[in-house]
Amino acid sequence: MYYGAQLGAALALACAFAGCKSDRPSPGSAAASTPSGEAASAAPATVTVIATDFAFDAGAQIPAGAVTLQLQNHGKEVHQAQLVRLEGGKTSQDLIAALKQHGPPPAWMKFVGGPNAAAPGHEVNAISVLEPGQYAYLCFIPSPDGVMHAAKGMVRPFEVTAAPSGAANTLPETDVAIKLVDFDFQFSQPLTTGKQRIMVENAGPQAHELVLVKLAPGKTIKDFAAWAESMKGPPPAEPVGGVGVLENGMRGIFTADLTAGDYGLICFVPDAKDGKMHLAHGMMKNIKVS
Question: What is the pTM of this model?
Fold first, then answer.
C-alpha cells in the first residue's frame, strides 16, 4: 500500500470497487511470501509484471516456488503489485465479489507482500515463495483524483501451479534484515550505498508494509506523509522499493541500489484497533545512507 490518506490495504479492499476515492520483456506473473526462508539451493525464478495506467500485463499462471517478481512501471503514475492469496478454495470471481462489498476483507483473503511502489518509468522487485493456489495482483495507490487504481481496473487474478522439479523453494540469503513491529522498523545493520538484498519480516502482530523512499534535499519522512494526504504539489520523495502488506510471520525480499543521501521508511496500513494509519502511531523513520 502507498499514500496514507487513501487508507491501507485492508480498508482499501472494503471500498475499492464500491466507489471509494482512492526492448520489453515478456510479462510473467508473481510472488507471495512465506514465514520460512533459508538459503535456497537454486536461484529463484524471475518473472515480469508490467504496470500501466491502469492495468497489469501479466501471465495467467506461474509455477510454485521462489520467484523474483520484477514490476516495471510503464505508466505515468506510481504503481505497486500488492499480492493477495485466496484461500479456502476461493476464486477470482469470489475476489471480485468481495471487492464490491463494504466492510473488512474476508478471512480467506491473505496479504502476502509483493513489490511496493514503483515510480513512473522505474522498476522494483520482490522475492517471495509461492505455494500452489489462486492469487491476485492489486494496486491500492490512488490517482490525484482520489480514486484507487484497483477501482480503475488494476486487479489481475492468476494461478500458481505445481513447482517444477529442481525449483528453488526457499528465500535466498540477504545482506540486511528489517523487522516490522508495532510500530517500528528494526534493522539488523544500517543500509549502505550500492546494491543490496533486503529481507523484510513482519514480526507483527498486525499486518505491516515497508515503503522505502529517497527524500528530496531538506525533506523528512513527515513531509512525505503530509504530502500524501493531498498529493498536491511536487512530492518531497521518490519511492525506491519495498515490500507490500505482509501478515504476521511472513517475509519478503527486495533489492535496492542506493546512492548516498536521506531516505525514509513508512507504513500506511490502518491500525486494527483505532483505524489510524500506522504512521500515526510512529511507524515512519528517517535514515541516512552513506
Answer: 0.86
- Per DSSP, 72 falls in state E
Q: What is the distance between the terminal CA atoms of the chain, rounded to a whole angstrom? A: 27
CA 172 to chain centre: 19
The pairing of strands 123-130 and 155-161 is unpaired
- pLDDT value of residue 41: 56
82 φ, ψ (degrees, to nearest 5): -65, 130
Superfamily of domain 4-161: Cupredoxins -  blue copper proteins (2.60.40.420)
Q: Same topology for domains 4-161 and 176-289, yes or no? A: yes
- Chain centre to alpha carbon of residue 255: 13
Segment 271-286, tens digit of pLDDT: 988 989 999 999 999 9
Compute the residue count for the chain: 290
Segment 39-51, tens digit of pLDDT: 435 889 998 999 9
Sorted by where each begins, the domain ranges of the chain are 4-161, 176-289
CATH topology of domain 176-289: Immunoglobulin-like (2.60.40)
Model confidence pLDDT, tens digit, residues 86-104? 999 998 888 888 877 777 7
